[in-house]
């Protein structure tokens, strides 16, 4: 414990004041054991009686609890005696235009509270498939990479092995032809849009975005001072004819699986958008966040694969295909912007973590990544089928389901319900242990309709079925109808297939019986002689 005596008055009084300051500033937590009197006396160069006197004073004031044979422990000081702490107030005024924009467009506390809601069933979009086998594979790759990765700073652009693996993968799976010198390893899509903003945008520059769009992309652009132009989306993706006549500096699109509507940009639209960028000399930011997961046919080639003028900045991430905690992605740079992007990355963080890059490069090169993708696509297709059956079963004409045959979420609209009524449904669902997400935050100009984003990647089939049961009851409540048994779960769930519901008494009894049967019988020992 670091204590500074102020030199005023008797030593025991000085020590008492120093200990109080430590307690009030939170340096010592409630329940923490104070140093033994002999040890503290030796450390401060004072007599033990001085320390005993100070501890006794703190006990008298209720700041310390003395326990016979154990020592002295920090008690919770009375709130009235705590000095005011400046950081508990509203804080200092914003010190820069950038900070003012951050305060205007982003609220950390609100984001944290939205993520921390404790509900039993949560149809959270953006959460990838949970695969325990992947965790074990990744642990082995990390251990191996840690043995041979140099401990020095990694190359700013990314490890050559990972950039080569990304190029091979993109050529096979996304139709993108790129050289390793075109690839920049970044900390996910969020850093990619931030670096793009730094390289291309000055405050006030115009950026065209899809409406609706991913809220985090919009916020990053706004924090960097961009003036946003909302462009509508229909069943064929971004409506290119609605782009402004006066060219924006940047156009942000999700052509392979529009977020959140699920629309896939048609080939004529893609060609029109590339022609627009060529004629207007603007740039295109292509966010290919989960284009891998399609449930009808092969994944579509990326927009970048059609670009012959070098106007597309192509971005991919491993957050959805592997897991968000990895914080690795890649950006395929147009040749003319290569040096600017690398310099911006250097200024940001000197380069992404080397051990994780080495592990990922080996995972991709060894075929483990694509095997994982194939398994994940199959599992996600099964979960999506369970969700779609459940939504269709509880709809009864009340839901409009935007089925895109791709991704890990479904957009659902409630017929004849306003946005305010949708918020009321979400609030009621929370009281029933169900987490739902509104679609309105994805819009720059939200329509007055009740819409939901329902993710299924992180839920097992049984969890989806149980969540749909609760959702059906919430719909009955919202539409003023009597609650009834949910037909979808009964007709399509485990019970209908002769299987007990996961977690039920019958399920536990059957599991125990199966394990008993599976136990190997002890082998008889041969008779002696």
Task: Kindly summarize this structure in a few lines.
The protein has 3 domains: 11-81, Winged helix-like DNA-binding domain superfamily/Winged helix DNA-binding domain (Arc Repressor Mutant, subunit A), CATH 1.10.10.10; 181-350, Aspartate Aminotransferase, domain 2 (3-Layer(aba) Sandwich), CATH 3.40.640; 376-515, Aspartate Aminotransferase, domain 1 (Alpha-Beta Complex), CATH 3.90.1150.
What does this structure look like?
This protein is of the alpha/beta class. It folds into 3 domains: 11-81, Winged helix-like DNA-binding domain superfamily/Winged helix DNA-binding domain (Arc Repressor Mutant, subunit A), CATH 1.10.10.10; 181-350, Aspartate Aminotransferase, domain 2 (3-Layer(aba) Sandwich), CATH 3.40.640.10; 376-515, Aspartate Aminotransferase, domain 1 (Alpha-Beta Complex), CATH 3.90.1150. Helix content is 42%, strand content 13%. It is built from 17 helices and 16 strands. Mean pLDDT is 84; it is low at 78-89, 488-498, 500-505 and 515-529.
